[in-house]
Inverse folding.
């Protein structure tokens, strides 16, 4: 009886994690759409800094409404050591993102993208090695997860090769460094999932993790922009120049925060080995925005269009395969061994950790209060978005309003359905 | 027997023997806890792996820029 109940719980959390992974793909893909409206003339560092600033500000809108700052504070105080890990994850993201800029410059997107897209395979390796993911699971799970992840990477490679992109513009002899930069980005992003998983098997709420993560991310991106963008005064001048298009970057950041939150919940409930490949389907959504809304594929040959359809189908097949790779109870036992290690090392209560992994909101028992100042911070964040929107410059780019409406509705449906499922099953814990 | 029966039932079954369970925090003062936390982080191999990867990333960045 108890085993049947445990299986039901495990199954419902598995499908919740899968839904979150798919929603993450949609919102991370949607994050690319506003940035397409920023036409040339700005350095990649300024675009990256603008978007990360948008992420940072957006963090204080929707996520604050979900749980409140008092709740996050309680979570962070209870698991202080994870603050260091979350900052480290933010730094890894920032350096990886900067590496991709140089990789594209030196070898072009079609070569660089498949190389850094191996991050899900790197994450899968760390998940298995450090957190016992897929251990003591059957051959079927191995086949579904490994095959699914490989299919997603393969599909992404086919899409990257077929889609239109800018040619490499790096100096002669820079190809090796470009490849190194792309591989480095994949390694850094794949390794970034170690802090993710560590936080979640410790029972941390993804909202708390993302809060600290954005501090590490913004600080590192700012430092890199200053270091590579010509110094503080140059960066400040470039930011002032970019003011009319900053709203598009902030909107991209807003979508990114929602996508990242779904990715974090996927990493919590189905692990990084399964959750990250699923959220890496964002390329499919990015392609849909580019092709259907901005007409980027209109000049392609029939062969290229066929390759894009084939790549998309391979990616979808990979996501379906991973969706059905539910972890058996023996694998959960292995995961509990990884939790025991954390519990011992950092003096945490194992039962509370397990309760959190089962979707229970253990912190809610402390009844954290909301304060007036957090409403003020949320209002200030929204006001900043409004201020940027008022002075926004309309983008000189054609967009299909019908397809834009279709994709916006589809991503909103995923937001509300997955948000509702998360609230009903876990109360966003 | 009655004492055993009165013991509250754990809400989640964690299949680990009692001998393996952590003893819990052994320090009480805030300063000791801080020291204990940093010691736990700095002696955690899982911490140095991402730090090493970050250092490699910064090195590649310096080379490619």
């Amino acid at each position: 009886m108890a085993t049947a109940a445990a299986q039901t719980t495990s199954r419902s959390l598995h499908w919740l994690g899968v839904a979150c992974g798919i929603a993450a793909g949609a919102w991370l893909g949607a994050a690319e759409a506003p940035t397409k409206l920023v036409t040339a003339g700005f350095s990649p560092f300024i675009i990256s800094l603008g978007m990360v600033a948008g992420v940072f500000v957006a963090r204080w809108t929707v996520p604050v409404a979900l749980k409140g700052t008092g709740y996050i504070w309680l979570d962070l105080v209870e698991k202080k050591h994870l603050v260091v890990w979350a900052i480290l994850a933010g730094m890894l993201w920032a350096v990886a993102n900067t590496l991709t800029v140089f990789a594209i410059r030196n070898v072009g997107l079609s070569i660089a993208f498949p190389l850094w897209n191996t991050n899900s395979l790197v994450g899968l390796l760390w998940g298995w090695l450090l957190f016992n993911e897929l251990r003591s699971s059957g051959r079927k799970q191995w086949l579904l997860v490994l095959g699914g992840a490989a299919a997603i990477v393969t599909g992404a490679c086919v899409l990257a090769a077929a889609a239109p992109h800018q040619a490499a513009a790096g100096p002669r002899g820079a190809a090796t460094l470009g490849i190194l930069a792309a591989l480095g980005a994949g390694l850094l992003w794949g390794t970034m999932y170690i802090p993710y998983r560590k936080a979640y098997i410790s029972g941390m709420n993804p909202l708390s993790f993302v809060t600290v993560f954005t501090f590490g991310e913004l600080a590192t991106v700012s430092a890199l922009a200053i270091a590579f963008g010509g110094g503080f005064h140059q960066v400040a001048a470039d930011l002032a120049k970019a003011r009319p298009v900053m709203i598009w970057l902030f909107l991209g950041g807003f979508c990114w925060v929602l996508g990242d939150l779904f990715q974090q919940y996927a990493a919590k409930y189905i692990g990084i080995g399964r959750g990250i490949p699923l959220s890496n389907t964002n390329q499919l959504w990015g392609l849909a925005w580019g092709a259907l809304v901005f007409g980027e594929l209109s000049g392609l040959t029939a062969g290229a269009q066929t390759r894009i359809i084939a790549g998309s189908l391979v990616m979808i097949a990979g996501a379906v395969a991973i969706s059905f790779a539910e972890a058996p109870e023996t694998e959960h036992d292995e995961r509990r061994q990884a939790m025991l290690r954390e519990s011992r090392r950092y003096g945490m209560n194992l039962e509370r950790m397990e309760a959190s992994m089962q979707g229970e909101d253990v912190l809610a028992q402390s009844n954290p209060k909301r304060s007036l100042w957090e409403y003020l911070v949320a209002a200030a964040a929204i006001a900043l978005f409004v201020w940027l929107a008022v002075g926004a410059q309309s983008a000189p780019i054609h967009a299909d309003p019908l397809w834009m409406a279709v994709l916006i509705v589809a991503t909103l449906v995923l937001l509300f359905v997955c948000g509702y499922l998360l609230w009903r099953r876990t109360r966003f814990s | 027997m009655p004492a055993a029966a009165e013991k509250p039932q754990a809400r989640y079954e964690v299949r680990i023997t009692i001998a393996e369970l952590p003893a819990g925090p052994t320090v009480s003062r805030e300063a000791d806890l801080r020291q204990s936390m940093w010691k736990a982080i700095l002696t955690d191999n899982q911490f140095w792996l991402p730090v090493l990867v970050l250092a490699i990333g910064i090195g590649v960045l310096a080379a490619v820029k």
